[in-house]
Every structure is written in C-alpha cells, then in structure tokens.
Write a structure and sequence with these properties.
Blueprint (H helix, E strand, L loop, with lengths): L2 H13 L2 H8 L3 H15 L4 E3 L4 E3 L1 H24 L6 E7 L1 H6 L1 H11 L3 E7 L2 H9 L5 E5 L9 E9 L1 E4 L6 H10 L1 E5 L4 H12 L5 E6 L2 H9 L5 E4 L4 H4 L4 E4 L6 E8 L5 H11 L2
Parallel strand pairs: 3-4, 3-5, 8-9
Antiparallel strand pairs: 1-2, 5-12, 6-12, 7-10, 7-11
Length: 285
C-alpha cells in the first residue's frame, strides 16, 4: 500500500476538495484523483461520495481515517528513525518571528547545498510556545529567546547571537536625548510578559525610568513600523534586520545584562543530533 496514496486520502478529507489537496501537495488534481481511485480499487470499496460540485468522505472512510493517520505517521517516524544519524529526512524546528526573517533564510540556502536530503518543517511562534513544544517533544529544536529561568536538565542551549538594547525613534538621537524621550514621550512597549520584553523592562527599572506606555506589542517588526510613523519611541533588541527597517536605531548599551540572547534549544542526545549540529553551524555563519 503506497503511503503517498494514504496521504492524499487524508489531504482530501482535511482540505474538503481534490483541488485543495493537490495545491497542498504541489501536484495536479488529476494525480490526486488517480491516487484515490487506486486506493478504492485496492480496498474494493468507495471511499468518497462524489457529485458535480463536491467530494465527501464516505462513512467507511470516516470510520478508518484515524487508523490511516496513524499508519502515515508511523511510516514517517520509521523513515526518520532509519535516517536518524544521517542528514536525510524531516527535522522539525520552531522559530520566533525575527529568526524567521533574519536567520532562517540564509540557513535554508546553505542547507539546500550541504544537506539536500534534509527537510526542515518550520513552526512559527513566540518563545514560550516553542519552548513548551520542544519540552513536549513536538519539535526537534527551536530558535528562541534564552529562557529567563532554569531549564530542564535534558535541554541544551547553543547561543546563536546576542542582541544589544536599542532605542527606536523617528529621528536619530544622542544617548541623553534617548533617556529624555523615554521619560517624557509616548512609549510603545515590547510586551513585558514576553521573554525579550522582560529585558527591556529591567533596563527601565534599573534607570528608574517610567515611560508613558501607549500600547504593548510582542511583535518587533510592528513596533518598528509604528515608531517610523511617529507613534512614539520604543526599546527593542537589535534583531538581524533591524537597521534595514529602522536606520535611526540607537544602541543604548552593550551590557550583557540587557542583551537578548537568541539560542538554538534541543534535547541532549537527540536522535537527530547530526542534523541539529549542522543546523547550529549554519545559523551561526
């Protein structure tokens, strides 16, 4: 029984149409239809009820679709286990937004030539979400802000970059002007609940600065846009593409206490250790 045929069955059920399943798999609708008919012939029953404008799973298919999902999942896991010590197969990683735009594209380009058989499945999210997914074994590795607490003993953290604290303002400023603007102007706060936001809040607390907060955002690119539109000033880490988006960004301090460390987190002794090691190396180049 061809796993690709089973994948197409699942995809048609999930997408609700052959066209949707074909688009998801990047193949033709004719190819998806052929796979379905092959499965119906092999199993000797009708798997979908068709009319002129729709296709719906039959009761028989709905009854066994959970088992089909398990078969496909186990097949993929078997492939990954067989290729565990190689640079082939799927590697599930998570990445925060600034890593997706600043670190991941160049890494993917390098991996396409150095490990063409390695397929990265990327999950976006904030650091806390990705950390939880990593702990729950839903990810093989995650690019996130260094956790502000003691992590599980099984986890390892590879520091990819350390980002100094910057002031974003509509125009270039000096150090003294920066502190004055923080004390008096409208302040767009990098959400204090986020792991990176905790660092900016620490800086303000240590200098006894209490800006007038107009909004909280855990979206650095959006903060940069609001500042460029004259909506206020903000304290942010110097993420990879910051200076391209905000050329007036002013580094306030390089003190490690106020830097946002970006790490690649993974479990010690992971079965995809070779792939994770290669990923770490290309992310740091």
């Amino acid at each position: 029984m061809d796993i690709q045929n089973l994948e197409s069955l699942i995809s048609v059920v999930d997408c609700g149409s052959i066209a949707g399943a074909a688009k998801k798999a990047n193949i033709s609708a004719t190819a998806v239809s052929l796979r379905i008919r092959k499965m119906e012939k092999h199993l000797g029953c009708t798997l979908f009820n068709r009319d002129a404008h729709s296709i719906k799973p039959s009761e028989k298919l709905l009854a066994v679709i959970p088992r089909i999902r398990c078969i496909v999942e186990h097949a993929h896991q078997l492939s990954n286990d067989l290729n565990a010590d190689t640079l082939i197969g799927e590697l599930r990683i998570g990445a925060i937004s600034t890593a997706l735009t600043g670190l991941v594209p160049a890494a993917l380009e390098q991996l396409s030539s150095s490990a063409p058989g390695l397929k990265l499945t990327i999950t976006p999210g904030d650091s806390k979400l990705l950390y939880d997914k990593l702990v729950n074994q839903e990810l093989d590795a995650a690019i996130l802000v260094a956790p502000p607490f003691k992590t599980e003993k099984s986890l390892r953290m590879v520091t990819l970059r350390s980002e100094p604290l910057c002031l974003l303002a509509p125009a270039a400023v000096t150090q003294d002007e920066a502190h004055s603007m923080l004390a008096t102007g409208p302040y767009i706060r990098y959400a204090a609940r986020s792991w990176g936001g905790l660092i900016t809040q620490r800086y303000l607390d240590d200098l006894s600065l209490a800006p007038c907060v107009t909004c909280d955002l855990d979206a650095l690119e959006a903060i940069s846009l609001l500042v460029s539109q004259g909506q206020g000033v903000s304290l942010v880490p110097q993420w990879p593409s910051l200076l391209q988006q905000s050329p007036n960004a002013h580094i306030l301090t390089n003190d490690p206490k106020y830097c946002r460390d970006i790490v690649l987190a993974h479990h010690a002794g992971h079965h995809r250790a070779s792939a994770i090691k290669l990923l770490a190396s290309v992310l740091m180049t």
